[in-house]
Amino acid sequence: MASFSVVTNIASANAQSNLNTTQVGLQRALTRLSSGFRINYSGDDAAGLVTANQYRQDLAVLTQGIRNANDGLSDLQIKDGALANVATLIDRLSTLATQAASGSTSNRTAIQSEFSDILGEISRETTVAGLGSAVTFSVFVSNNNTGSAEDGKIAGTITAITTTSLGLSTLSVATQSGAEAAVGALATAVGTLGAAQSKIGALQNRLQFAINLSQSQVVNTRAAESRIRDANVAEESANMTRYNILTQSGIASLAQANQSISSVLALLR
Length: 269
What we know:
Blueprint: H1 10-35, H2 46-100, H3 108-128, E1 135-140, E2 153-158, H4 176-229, H5 233-260
């Protein structure tokens, strides 16, 4: 049974409650549209925020890992370029040794002089390229969820490349017999140099594959985070329109509820 009271306006209280709820929804829709995020506060989706933050942390690691890998590639390319030049210098040494090994050669002094200069240049270039001693190459390239740090990096040892390690430091073409021995030693040096080049090439390929994988992971991880954290603009636009309409109708209803109580006063006249 309906009752009439000037003390408690039930209709007005209901209208205010509904209007407050509408204002909260409208504020949420406006916040999401203006920020672009579905989760702006922890209370928006506490569980989703934890997952989204984990994805964001993974992205930070993957992105820096790509930079690390590119830096590693640059370092390897410097070493690879130096070794390619050393290979060219060894070719010249082989030419000189073969020339000096011939019994008809009469200018071995000049040949020996150039031979020594080339050996000095090999020593200089390998030192400049950081190959004067064995190098432990290690690059952290990706996130690792297995508990093993080894899964997150690419590593390998690049052997030292010097005239000594190549077996060239004691060679001389000042005599025919020395030149003949040098030809064989230089052939061995080519194989030793090729092994180092092969190791560097393998590391370069591994880094490039790792970069490709990390870039794919970045895209997929960013998409996964977006699905949780980002706002659906179409949905929030519809929500804003709905709450705007409800706000206007709620205000009109509240005004009507406040006005209707005045009709009760007519009973006192």
